[in-house]
Specification:
- The structure holds 2 protein chains of 2 kinds.
- By secondary structure, chain A is an alpha/beta fold.
- Chain A is built from 8 helices and 10 strands.
- Chain A has a single domain, classed as Protocatechuate 4,5-dioxygenase, Chain B (3-Layer(aba) Sandwich), CATH 3.40.830.
- Chain B is mainly alpha-helical.
- Helix content of chain B is about 75%, strand content about 0%.
- Classes of the chains: A alpha/beta, B mainly alpha.
- The interface between A and B is medium-sized, with 18 and 23 residues.
């Protein structure tokens, strides 16, 4: 049987790549330290496959056909399409169709109905944390796209349940492989709105406290109440919620937080201690 | 509210760098391919961020103005004023 060997979360602000030279030295140091540490921990977990949860920034989907959740089933995925990601080393990214298939089957058995894609393009949301985390070569990736961009969104509670279902899918996968999960996005930020550029650090700190406490009801209530009141980018915290569900809602450890106005994002980095031996 | 064809224009432009280059060279030629409502087309032609903001996803709005070549500082100023301006426009009927 497969084993879940690590659960991680990372912000993915585009300006970490596109506007890096404009980031202050102190924030560059903070972001680099956190992204490197997430990458180091993923590598230390030695995953044979990495399940990655991220939004799609209008690369694969449009409003004529917009899945709430889509699992990438392909043997191979495309690297990022954004012109400013041209230096990203991942031009094509190997998938893991068998695990992806098992995830979708498990989802359907548990009354989830994900969309499926046999060929996805993995945009900056997927690739920046991998690239800046120093993951080269990459393990095969099973990408899972959560709609965090265009309301209405999957509910916070459903994302938590999705995470628990993912952990079950890993546990019941019949091959003896090591699987890690990386959720990307968040924390607070606002894109293309009147509040663009605003970072709500008190919100971010409180959100982190709720992940640390492991109190499911308080986390869900907090996000249900506050997500609609702050910048649209914070919707991506749903991906962290899924990771939290996969980790059994315990063991959250903040690796780093950087209120980084130069990239418009309250950048957060975390892992969950699963008590798994290497 | 989402304006489908406006959203499609923005989506296509940010999806295709060659189309973006073509658009910056001749907006009219590209705009003619989309069945935009007259008031929407006018708003695109005059870079009316406030009008457009209420009709597309905010990420697409942001990506569009990057492709269209609007300087970041100008976009930030316009989008940050969008809330107040939108309220003012509503109150004047």
């Amino acid at each position: 049987m497969a084993k879940l060997v690590g659960v991680f979360a990372s912000s993915h602000a585009p300006l970490i790549v596109r506007g890096w030279k404009d980031v202050s030295p102190a924030n560059q140091e903070s972001l680099t330290r956190s992204m490197t540490e997430v990458g180091r921990r993923i590598k230390a977990a030695k995953p044979d496959v990495l399940i990655e949860i991220a939004p799609d920034h209008w690369v694969n989907f449009f409003i004529n056909n917009l899945p709430s959740i889509c699992v990438g089933m392909g043997e191979e995925h495309e690297g990022p399409a954004e012109p400013w990601m041209k230096d990203c080393p991942y031009k094509t990214i190997k998938g893991h169709p068998k695990l992806a298939h098992h995830i979708v089957e498990t989802a359907l058995e548990r009354d989830f109905e994900p969309s499926m894609s046999h060929h996805l393009t993995l945009d900056h949301g997927f690739c920046i944390p991998l690239w800046r985390g120093g993951l080269d070569p990459l393990p095969p990736i099973v990408p899972i796209i959560f709609n965090d961009l265009e309301p209405p969104f999957p509910t916070v509670r459903r994302c938590l349940q999705w995470g628990a279902m993912l952990a079950e899918a890993v546990r019941t996968y019949p091959e003896d492989i090591r699987v890690a999960i990386l959720a990307t996005g968040g924390l607070s930020h606002s894109i293309g709105e009147p509040t663009m550029g605003e970072i709500d650090e008190p919100f971010d700190r409180e959100c982190i406290q709720h992940f640390e406490s492991g109190d499911e009801r308080r986390l869900v209530d907090f996000l249900n109440e506050r997500l609609p009141t702050i910048g649209n980018g914070a919707a991506e915290i749903r991906n962290w919620v899924a990771a939290h569900g996969a980790a059994g809602k315990r063991g959250f450890e903040l690796i780093g937080y950087c209120n980084c106005p130069e990239v418009y994002v309250g950048c957060g980095y975390a892992s969950w201690n699963l008590g798994v031996r290497a | 509210m989402r304006d489908y064809w406006l959203s499609k224009l923005f989506f296509d432009l940010q999806s295709s760098p060659p189309l973006g280059i073509e658009y910056r060279g001749d907006r009219k030629k590209i705009l003619d391919r989309y069945p935009l409502k007259p008031e929407v087309r006018k708003a695109v032609e005059r870079d009316d961020v406030v009008f457009l903001a209420s009709r597309v996803n905010p990420y697409l709005l942001r990506f569009y103005f990057v492709v269209a070549g609007m300087p970041e500082a100008e976009f930030l100023k316009k989008v940050r004023n969008a809330g107040a301006e939108s309220a003012a426009r509503s109150s004047h009927g």
